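re: ur question from yesterday

yeah so i grabbed the chain u mentioned. its 398 aa long if i counted rite. heres the sequnce exactly as i have it in my notes:
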Amino acid sequence: MRILFEPIGGALGIGAITRCLAMAQAAAMRGHRVAFLAPEGYPLIDELDLGERYFAPFPERTPELVGSGEADGFTEAVLIRGMGEPAYVRAALDAEVSAYRAFRPDMVVTEMQPTVPIAAHIARVPFACTVQSPNLAAFAGPSDRPESCARVEATFAALAREHGLPEPASLEDLLHQRAALNIAPTAEVLEPALGALPRTRYVGPVLLPSLELAPAPRYDDAEVRVLVYLSFGALTLDEFLPVIAKAFPAPRHSVVVAAREKDIAGREVPFRQDNVIVARTPGITRLLQDTDLLVTRGGQNALMASLLAGVPVIGTPGRSPEPIFNLGALQAHGAALTLLDEPGPEALAEAAQTLLTGHAAQHAARLGDLLRRHRGAVEAVEALESAVSNPACRPPLD
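ran it thru and got these structure tokens back, copy pasting raw so excuse formatting
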């Protein structure tokens, strides 16, 4: 089988990319031929070099949207990434159709690239899409930019009509109602609403081993070992590092901060500040094996890894709806506490005390056991194989 992977063209973090890479690795190990379509210079894709490479345009974010990472729903996420601009949409579609015809995939797999359903229809190729509840209209809050979001929807609706597709009710419907397979990288207990979509397959965490298990520093000998990983979000390590140091002082705590930045407040990473070790892109799962508490923004991959390790979570999502939703699911099961806005050291210390003296670790471990019933990237590839071989699993392309 030939599978072309296409992460969202305007990814702000690396989760979309790593999930596609993890599935591509599993597919290649099962004897399938893989290729990637993504903008030039995308993180990790060219370094790993798993298969043939095709290039897509990179969306340009308008000046007023640069630094705006908060999105109420998928349409607004497309807007703030510059992916709703008509020129970008047409350029992305052209690149996709060209790549599909050149590689001749049996299946296209995308992490939420909204032009894929139209390109797949033109090229007569089935596609699969990853899906998360925060990207569904049912969980979207009212946008502060309704007119701009309406223009995005209208751009895709017009393009769909132009190529003979019925006008979709929303961008999410365009993706998930037409997909041959909706891949849910989670478990039913955390996101049950995804089961209402057609052709949904829960596969559990889809993590990239080479990144998750990368070299990592060791904690100091201490009673409590804390891992901090913010990823992309409203809080930055420049401003949050002093707060972390005050919340988790020596000698009781040893802290490792996982940074993707090259420098923090003018200091080149890696560096050490008292009992806080700042490391560049260390293996998160590797560190979680020896961690008592995770402080994180609430991205899906980090939360999945923490549950697999049975580590409770303090969530620092700012006001971003997606991590707030993700953390809310864990908090409802007693495995996390969420601190909105910019928590101070006292709030962090109090949340840590609550989690560490209660049963949060046991709750996290139980959720991890439920996640382990699925097989992640391998199960996703098995579902792709079934969708390609079974016409009943494929929606009509006309």
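noticed a couple things. The mean pLDDT is 93. also The first helix runs from residue 15 to 29.
anyway ttyl
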